[in-house]
Amino acid sequence: MTGWIALAVLVGLVLIIGMYVVGVFNQLVKLQNRYENAFSQIEVQLKRRYDLIPNLVETVKGYMAHERETLEAVITARNKAVSGLQQASSDPSNVAAMQALSGAEQGLTGALGKLFALSEAYPDLKANQNMAQLTEEITTTENKVSFARQAYNDSATAYNTYKESFPPVAVAGLFGHSQNAQLLQFDSAVIAEAPKVSF
Amino acid sequence: MASDFFQRQSDARRSTLWLVCMFCLAVIAIVTIVVSVAAVVVSSQSRQPMQAISAHPEQLAIPALAGLITLVLIVGGSIYKILELRSGGGTQVAEGLGGRRLYPNTQDPTEKRLLNVVEEMAIASGTPVPPVFMLPEKGINAFAAGYSPGDAVLGVTRGCATQLSREQLQGVIAHEFSHILNGDMRMSIKLIGVLHGILLLGLTGHLILRMFFYSGGSRSRSNRSDGNNSGGQAILVIIVIGVVLLVLGFVGTFFGNLIKAAVSRQREYLADASAVQFTRNPEGIAGALKQIGARAAGSRLKTAGAAEASHMYFAQGVWEGFSGLWATHPPLAKRIRAIDPQWDGKFPEADALPASLGSDVLAGFTGGVQLQSVPPAASTEVPVQIIDEAVNHVGEPTTAHQHYAADLVRQIPELIVEATHEPYAARAVIFALLLNRQAEVRLRQLEILRKNAPADVNQLVVGMQADIDRLDARVRLPLVEMSLPALRAMSPSQYVEFYRCFVDLAKADQHIDLFEWMLSQVLLRHLRPQFERIKSPPVMYYGLQQLGRECSILLSAMAAAGNNDAVAKLAFQQGATRLSELKLQQRPRSESGLGDLRVALEKLAHVAVKHRGRIVDACAAAISADQHVTWQEAELLRGISDLLDCPMPPLLIPSAAASSRY
Predict the structure, then answer these.
(1) Which residue from B193, B209, B287, B632 could staple onto B242, CB 3.0 to 4.6 Å apart?
(2) What mean pLDDT is predicted for residues B469-473?
């Protein structure tokens, strides 16, 4: 009789532990997918930013004919950033490509900042409805880029914390979750100098 | 200090957990009290020592039964209320409060900014972008409604969108996203449900006592004269249980409400802390709270239904009595201090409008938005829902797009725009839209209206018909959608009358075209749930395998719309490739009746969401097969996707084709 009870308790325990492990596995997968998705969001928003810039230059061109150099600098920086993104996204683990992208991004941000600063001197441009809309679009895209980075870091942290906390840490390695998610360094120059595009 | 938001979040979570435990304990305590009171009464009645209880099964049975009934009442009442609150969905709440949906193709810079901020916060919080509604209210407030993140919507007052700076707006929206992410709406619906169950207990107690005093009293006397002790005992037990239920029910509701309010306040702190996490900018949300404090209008809402949704707002939406115990939101000052401990307690000057908003916005704010009933200025406020494919072009609004939208707005005379905001006139707008262009049919329809519609509605229709006839057909669906909130304000009897007229008008016109038909289907789909009990279709098909015929009917109709037979064939094939697992047969034009289409759509509404999306996708492929999408095809697609209860995805039209047609 006692043997049966012991067996039943044992089976029950194994079942409970098994269910818990399944839960841990699912949670790990969920968190991993979340941060991977957050990473792709950054890419989407960067692309969107690059797409907006030709429109911006097109709009500004008519008003700022004398600022040819600035406009060309924006376009060059944009093209550099586009190719940087292509390389970085084809191999996200490549540190050099990531750094190149980050550098190109900074160059673009600087060129854009200069363009917006110059545009202050053109009242006609400021009154242009199209320009106002583009400004709003670029502002929101800049914000989205930084929010996407931040969301990526938040979700990567959540994944790392869960993976390293006690019961999951015992099994995480078994399920192939041994590597910590890499946090993106907030490149202070890129974030802090997001161009002030308010008129 | 910006870094301790995680700490504040876990504090708020812990307090909530504790409160919810108290709530559960209260329910358990209620059941225990009922059982023990019943046991005491039974044993004292039988005048037998407690030890002997096991010898008398009925002495156990009565308390057990009482406990069971209590539990069933609480659980049943809760489930009923929860299901009722769930069924509404976020959209209905927002429209009930007078909200107007904002679309990404809006021309108003304030609305555009609001939508952009919502997208930013959706990215920051990792939740899908919810539909956004704007409430015509002066106070600064916002809410999230809906049961799950999937059906959540955001509502934002006009005051909030115009008076806050971009950072502050981000804070407010991030706060609402926290409610969505943390399932706060779901929790408060559950708490309200359980409270309802406890209240039901009190009502049952009341009912038992009434029954006893009005009818039971005489019977108990006759029972006693029979000397039947057990009958008298049972009645006494029932009275005592009635009293106990009454007291517990009302005391429980009282304290339950206190707990619910306390939970709600904790969730507000949590949401404030999360808003700082999402924006990494404590000044944003603190600034928004200060702006509310600085303004006379504050966060009050004027709409009649505001109280019902009080737990969902950003800040206190309705006056909740002098005691802070019933407040669903903590006091403003406390919330600000929690985020910004250095705050000096002074609210900023109220007139300090953010510099980024131009003077035109200021004028609109002071002039146009005093009362809800004042129709907003026509030029900026009309929601022009051009084909949602414009979603694709949000980032790159070409000048063609802008001209197109502006033209559409200008086409609607101001009179008609105003009419759509007013329940009587909105009915007239709908009737006028249904009028046929053929003189003879129209005469018959006007006759129907004269007989069945209220005289003043009839008059409005007659006055309006010329204007409506002149309208571009493109604005017909937008007009229907604009009228919906006003139409929802009808009384049930008005609705019955409206519905009868509507059906008669549609029938008088013996041949309806596909577009007209879709218009009426969209209208009915959104109106009927408000007045009739209609369940949303349960999912019955998890694949399309059995639905080849229905898909064929739908695709044939889409392909045939506005195309000649050769193009229709190509269009059908294009659509069919999207549903490659099915063998689809194009149906000849003569066989594709609207009756079949209606049946097919009803059946397709039972398909799982994922596959419904694919059906819409296939329809989109069909209409864009010839690289030339007319407004009619696009509006038709919008209507179909609406009928399938599918959020409209951006159309898959090559952008060259899309913009060349304007």
Answers:
(1) B209
(2) 73
Where are the extended beta strands (E) located within B248-326? none
What pLDDT does residue B493 have? 77
The owner of tokens 């959209």 is B91
Task: For residue range B577-621, list pLDDT tens digits in order.
Answer: 877 777 777 777 666 667 777 778 878 888 877 778 788 878 877
Sorting pLDDT into bands at 50, 70 and 90, what band is B391? very low
How many angstroms separate the CA of residue A141 from the nearest CA in chain B?
8
Pick from B196, B211, B155: nearest CA to B179: B155
For residue B530, what pLDDT band results from cuts at 50, 70 and 90? Answer: low
| pTM reported for the whole predicted model | 0.56
Over residues B261-272, the mean pLDDT reads 85
Contact present, B137 and B159 (Cβ < 8 Å): yes
ipTM: 0.71
Q: Are B475 and B409 in contact (CB under 8 A)?
A: no
3-state DSSP assignment of residue B145: strand
Instruction: Judge residue B454's burial from the number of C-beta atoms within 10 Å of its C-beta, 0-12 exposed, 13-18 middle, 19 or more buried.
Output: middle
E-strand ranges in B492-591 read none
Q: Which of B109, B116, B123 sits opposite A151 (nearest CB)?
A: B123
pLDDT computed for residue A87 by the predictor? 81
Closest CA to A39 of B126, B331, B592: B126
Chain A residues 51-110 with CB within 8 Å of chain B = 51-52, 55
Which residues lie across from B143 on neighbouring strands? B155, B313
Give how far the C-alpha of residue B553 lies from the chain's centroid of Cα atoms, to the nearest Å. 32
The 3-state secondary structure of B566-627, one letter per residue: HHHHHHHHHHHHHCCCCCCCCCCHHHCCHHHHHHHHHHHCCECHHHHHHHHHHHHHHHCCCC
**Angle B410-B415-B416 (CA atoms, 0-180°, nearest 5)?**
75
Using DSSP bridges, classify how beta strands B100-102 and B142-145 pair: parallel, antiparallel or unpaired: unpaired
Summarised one tens digit per residue, pLDDT across range B115-143 is 989 988 888 887 778 889 998 888 888 88
The answer to whether A154 contacts B277, with C-beta atoms less than 8 Å apart, is yes
pLDDT of residue B394: 32
- Taking residues B559-575, what's their average pLDDT? 76
Under 8 Å between Cβ of B38 and B248: no
Buried-exposed string B519-550: b where 16+ CB fall within 10 A, e elsewhere: bbbbbeebbebbbeeeeeeeeebeebeebeeb
Query: Rg of the Cα trace of chain B?
Result: 30
Q: Does A36 touch chain B (CB under 8 A)?
A: no
Kindly tell me if the per-residue pLDDT of B377 is higher than 60: no
Q: Taking CB atoms and an 8 Å cutoff, what residues of chain B touch A198?
A: 355-356
Evaluate if residue B156 carries a pLDDT over 80: yes
H/E segment holding residue B314: none
Check residue A195 and give its pLDDT: 45
Q: Nearest chain A Cα to B116, which residue?
A: A140
Which residue from B193, B160, B204 is spatially nearest to B87, judged by alpha carbons?
A: B193
Per-position DSSP letters for B262-275, written without gaps between them: HHHHHHHHHHHHHH
Selected catalytic residue, list B95, B111, B137, B176: B176
The predicted structure's pLDDT at residue A11: 94
Question: Is beta strand B100-102 parallel, antiparallel or unpaired with respect to B132-135?
Answer: antiparallel
Burial class of residue B321 in the structure, from the number of CB atoms within 10 Å of its CB (0-12 exposed, 13-18 middle, 19+ buried): exposed
SS (H, E, C) B27-57: HHHHHHHHHHHHHHHHHHHHCCCHHHHHHCH
Q: What is the pLDDT of residues A81-102, one digit of tens each?
A: 888 888 877 766 667 777 788 7
Query: Which residue spans within B416-573 are E strands per DSSP?
Result: none
Secondary structure letter of residue B489 according to DSSP: T
